Amino acid sequence: DAGVIQSPRHEVTEMGQEVTLRCKLISGHNSLFWYRQTMMRGLELLIYFNNNVPIDDSGMPEDRFSAKMPNASFSTLKIQPSEPRDSAVYFCASTPGQGYTGELFFGEGSRLTVL
Amino acid sequence: TQLLEQSPQFLSIQEGENLTVYCNSSSVFSSLQWYRQEPGEGPVLLVTVVTGGEVKKLKRLTFQFGDARKDSSLHITAAQPGDTGLYLCAGPHSGYSTLTFGKGTMLLVSP
């Protein structure tokens, strides 16, 4: 079975550019989480969707960040405009139930570098 | 805010040594999880502990949940290079819908 699939794996961009990160959930999973990982702050939850609906976006740092889930299997995280402090590894994770239900299944992450 | 503090932040040992890493909080958790993250990959669940005082073993790894359900430890016996990675503890956020993670312990096991 395919796991959570993220793209791109690596992205290098310049400050001010728009960045779009993509995530495909495991088939049958209906909760989706976006996390950001840095050395300083560890893994931080950005936003959580259940059945395509954003439930908790309190971790989204500011208006430059937006996330969508246009269908049950796909999500995007967009940063516009990007800044150097956005450099991090962005993970999405999914679970089969409503919210965290025993195990988060993570993708391999998208490493973003903003110059 | 429920915080999980992990120690040590970094541990470098030789193959065959034993080690223990810790996860502590001032809050009570209904359960705690341990994940391992290898370089370039996402975290993968190792174990979930639910009952205060619970001990779970996974081959050479022993996990313990504190009696008060505020802390947990991971003990590795006879560490191997394949144990190298970032060990993260995580607990349900107060709303029980999301997971809060500690910053992790980076373990390096040299041959």
List keywords for this structure.
heterodimer; A: 115 residues; mainly beta; 7-stranded mixed sheet; 11 strands; B: 111 residues; 6-stranded mixed sheet
Describe the structure in your own words.
The complex is a heterodimer of chains A (115) and B (111). With 115 residues, chain A is mostly beta strands. Chain A starts with a strand and ends with a strand. Chain A has no helices and eleven strands. The radius of gyration of chain A is 13 Å and the shape is globular. Chain A has strands at 5-7, 10-13, 19-24, 31-38, 42-50, 53-56, 65-71, 74-79, 88-95, 105-106, 110-114. With 111 residues, chain B is mostly beta strands. Chain B is built from no helices and eleven strands. In chain B, the strands form two sheets. In chain B, strands 2, 4, 5, 9, 10 and 11 form a six-stranded mixed β-sheet that branches. Chain B has a five-stranded antiparallel β-sheet with strand order 1-3-8-7-6, with no helix packed on it. In chain B, β4 (32-37) and β5 (44-49) form a beta hairpin. The N and C termini of chain B lie far apart (40 Å). Chain A binds chain B through residues 4, 33, 35, 41-43, 45, 48, 50, 55-56, 91, 93, 98-100, 102-104, 106-109, and chain B through 33, 35, 40-45, 48, 88, 90, 92-93, 95-104.
* Strands of chain B, count: 11
Order of helices and strands of chain B: EEEEEEEEEEE
- Total number of helical segments of chain A? 0
Order of helices and strands of chain A: EEEEEEEEEEE
The share of residues in helices of chain B is: under 10%
Strand content bin of chain B = over 45%
Weakly predicted, low-confidence segments of chain B: none
Largest sheet of chain B: 6 strands, mixed
